[in-house]
């Protein structure tokens, strides 16, 4: 009988072998993900894959308390005051906090962080909502020439007492919640400047306006104040280790290893063997069938879902490679194929919502009336929804483009997130039902790396893409404006425009009364149902599964505002 390898040897295999697998040591959290990590720069973080890492390497001024969606508590801040009729926020910062570089965190670092985020605001990151709070606009200084260095410097600065002071142009009741977003984590000024990032001064501020932060030098060499520090990363493996200089409680788990494993079956096998503690699943159907009730597997169900997902139909497709002939001749589609309302309605009637709930969500899901979580204020439960109706779909296709769609047919190419079984299944359902209506209809679906899809969709290049929105902060505006406003975050992906909805959404932003905001959002939902810019995907009832020896996971600790799959930080987990 051969001798079992030591724990050190097993950890060495995990750290050095890339995608090779070995049994998970007791002091190591092993995660297997289906996707890559787009960025490790907080300022560029605007997806859950990046956020799940960044929120553990870095820290924000404020954090959500326990499992609450709205209650906040200090993290890098210790307290704050509000003055100037609700437009000035003054923060005391925690002392004794060190960056992973060993440097002490100061107010100058926090000041640098928020100025950098406002400067680099662009369509691929979440800094638009901070710019909106601090400068009164979602635009950056290239897009809005009224933004000057003086405005940026005045919006966030340190006072003589070493306090961080934010001065807003107008009241923003969601401002504190925005500060809890992982993308607003504090970074070190001197360290970043040494890497070649922005100096933090007026001298080079214009060169950083709108800059892409997804592949910065800071992304390749992260340096936060979090409980874990970056060790290394390659194409398949990310490694972090507990930071000995952390100001807070010492983590129980010394190491964290995340491996990219594209194949679901491979992830499942590793999980069942105990080689991985947590994995990306394949959706409820696959996970319940393959994993629930198996030895060593713990299952936590009926958790809140605060995301909203949709099939986005781009009304101005900018990628010629997805258009075929580029015409309505049966060999492709024109760039504005989805500009026709009847085309969009036809696709909405072609999706089998009940099948999706049954097959993908195993009956644990609900069809929402709008792209807003039903646990959020402002949700209209009485609104209308689409249903799978081939007759209605056929009729709409026959009207579309003056009858040319039905007569000529089309070839549509749509991408889905590689390794994501749920997205693939949704596209397969849509493909099957659309093609069944007319032999001239062809929907080609193909996998694509998530980071590439995010970049392409931000440029308006994806013809049809499944996107989910997880809240940056717990306010209905974060969903309603994101999806439905002509200058919302998803506008470049959908190119949807409607003046009436825009007017209602702008009014809601200036309205304090929740009942009045709810009334306005209901009007938006009714209007959107008629125009069908998206196919609203049924919302799942959330669940998580994990190796049963992994502690620190419960309904009481699960916070859906966290990006990491357990709804906690790594530092809160342990192995029994």
TrEMBL record:
<dbReference type="InterPro" id="IPR030678">
    <property type="entry name" value="Peptide/Ni-bd"/>
</dbReference>
<feature type="signal peptide">
    <location>
        <begin position="1"/>
        <end position="22"/>
    </location>
</feature>
<dbReference type="InterPro" id="IPR039424">
    <property type="entry name" value="SBP_5"/>
</dbReference>
<keyword id="KW-0732">Signal</keyword>
<protein>
    <submittedName>
        <fullName>ABC transporter substrate-binding protein</fullName>
    </submittedName>
</protein>
<feature type="domain" description="Solute-binding protein family 5">
    <location>
        <begin position="72"/>
        <end position="489"/>
    </location>
</feature>
<dbReference type="Pfam" id="PF00496">
    <property type="entry name" value="SBP_bac_5"/>
</dbReference>
<dbReference type="InterPro" id="IPR000914">
    <property type="entry name" value="SBP_5_dom"/>
</dbReference>
